[in-house]
Automatic annotation (TrEMBL):
Annotated protein name in UniProt: Hsp20/alpha crystallin family protein
Family according to the record: Belongs to the small heat shock protein (HSP20) family.
Record-annotated SHSP domain positions: 26-138
Coiled-coil segments: none
PROSITE patterns the UniProt entry points to: SHSP
Pfam families (UniProt xref): HSP20
Domain of life of the organism encoding this protein: Bacteria
SUPFAM superfamilies: HSP20-like chaperones
Species annotation: Amycolatopsis eburnea
């Protein structure tokens, strides 16, 4: 099989990875959607930045303790009288996967989208919460006779 390569395209791709900016005249999308994750009380919270994404274009799936978030930023409507002057916002489908620990209750995940931020709340599983264990002891012979 014959493969055609463009050394300048590879150089542009390398420059983007190192410097984080696309080469002039090229289009690229971010590698992942930025997120913050923290634990508060009895839940684990993850917030994803998804500005300009319609809530109907967001998908959340959980399979075998892997949370997958997919979102699509669609282009603005165009027409005969619209002339695009600048287009710097990345478009297309973005996805991110998080590997969840066994201590999280994946059956009770809740998600909310507000002002361009998707917030996913995952409760801590009951079996993972700290609990007090009662310690019992055997009665001595003297205690058994007196009883």
């Amino acid at each position: 099989m014959l493969m055609r390569t463009d050394p300048f395209r590879e150089l542009d791709r390398f420059a983007q990875q190192v410097f984080g900016t696309p080469a002039p005249g090229t289009w690229s999308r971010p590698a992942a959607m930025p997120l913050d994750a923290y634990r508060t009380g009895d839940e684990f919270v993850v917030s994803f930045d998804l500005p300009g994404v319609d809530p109907g274009a967001i998908e959340l799936d959980v399979e075998r303790n892997v949370l997958t978030v997919k979102a699509e930023r669609r282009p603005l409507p165009t027409g005969d009288d619209v002339r695009l002057q600048v287009s710097e916002r990345p478009l297309g489908v973005f996805s991110r996967q998080l590997f969840l620990g066994d201590t999280l209750d994946t059956d009770r995940i809740a998600a909310d989208y507000h002002q361009g931020v998707l917030t996913v709340r995952i409760p801590i599983a009951e079996r993972a919460k700290p609990r007090r264990i009662e310690v019992t002891g055997a009665k001595t012979e003297r205690q058994q006779i007196q009883a």
